[in-house]
Amino acid sequence: MKKLYYTIGETSRMTGVEPHVLRYWESLFNELSPSKNRAGKRVYKEDDIQLILTLKELIQQKKFSTAGAQKVLRDQKKQRSPEDKEDYGSLPVELTQDLSRVRVFLADLLKKI
User: Fold this and answer.
1) pTM, whole model, 2 decimals?
2) CB–CB of 14/55 below 8 Å?
3) Among 17, 21, 45, 109, which one has the highest count of C-beta atoms within 10 angstroms of its own C-beta?
C-alpha cells in the first residue's frame, strides 16, 4: 500500500541513503525540503524520494560533486516544460526504487568485469 508520507528511517531504507546524508543534502539542496509533522519530525513525499534517488545517482553513482549535482538539477529545471512537470514522478515510488537498485547492481557488476 502506498503511503502519502514516509519517515526519515523509511526513506533511508527505501533509497539506500543514510539519514545523516539525507539531512546533509537537505542543507545543500533547496529542492529537497521535506515537511515536518506536529512532532517536528521530517516527513518525505514521493517527490522527495524521487529527488533523493536522483541525487543518489548523481553523487554516489556518477561521482558528481554536490555543486555539480546542483548545476544538473538547475539545468533540468530550466529544460522541463510545463507538460514535463505534470509527468515528473509519475512512476510509482516502488518501481523507481526497484529500478534504482537494478541500476546500482548493474554498475557494480560492470566494475567487476
Assistant:
1) 0.70
2) no
3) 17
